[in-house]
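This entry is set out below.
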Amino acid sequence: MLYRFKSQATEDVVMMEGNARQLLDIVGKASSKGIITADQLPAAITALENAVKQDAINNKHNHDAFAAEDHADEAERVHVGLHQRAAPLIHMFKRAQAAGKDVVWGV
């Protein structure tokens, strides 16, 4: 299943269900449809950015495409870290916040 995040301030962001649910859990909106209001966006952005920072500390190899920390080279090159999955949503949230618009999904 795909999740389509929409805002009047940005283009849509489409994600696979597993990735979207992980990010929605981080911002405290674990639901197949919902809204993050313009007033809630700063907290959602902070939650995602903090999760990305914590993931970088806990999983240093995620930022090095050629690291050899117990991973096969090919597996390491195709690994998609939290910072890569969260980036489109963080960007969308920041643009929506700047425009004072909500972000919705599943509606």
